[in-house]
Amino acid sequence: MSETTVPVTRTVASSAASPVIAESTTARGRRARIALRTLQVVLALFYVIASALPKLIAHPSAAEGFDKMGWGSAGMYIIGVLELAGGIALLIPVLQSVAAVALSGLMVGAFVVQLTYFDGENAATPLILIVPLALIAWARRGHNADLLRLVRRRA
Prior knowledge:
Radius of gyration: 19 Å
Low-confidence stretches: 5-18
Number of strands: 0
Mean pLDDT: 87
Distance between the termini: 47 Å
Strand content: under 5%
Oligomer: single chain
Shape: globular
C-alpha cells in the first residue's frame, strides 16, 4: 500500500445499506446532505401545493384539462392523490427513494399526456422534474433495504 492511500474499513452490510452521501461526516458531505434535503422539501412542496392541491380542490384550470383529455373528475382526483402521496413520501426517510421513482413514473406519464393532448405546450416541465427525482432516488437508495425489511417483517 502506498503512502497516499488510506485504508477504508467499512463493513459490507453498512456499504450496501446506506449510500456514501449519507455516511460522509466531512463538511462537503454535510453540505451535500443539506442540499439534498432542501431539494426534497422544495419538490415535496411543489407536488403538494402547486400540483396536487389544484386537482384536489377541482380548480377550474385543472378540471378543464382533465375534461379535455376525457378523464373527468375521477382522473383528476386520482392523479391529485398520487401527487399528494408522493410529495408527502419524499419527506419520510424510508419512502424517499421509492417516492422519487414513483413520481418519476408519474412524470413520464405527464410528459406523454402533454405531447398527445396539449401539443407539447408544457412538455418540458415533467422532464425537468425527473432529473432531481432521479438524484433523490439514487442518493436515498440505501433506504430501500430498510423498507424491504419492514415489509417482510409485516408479512
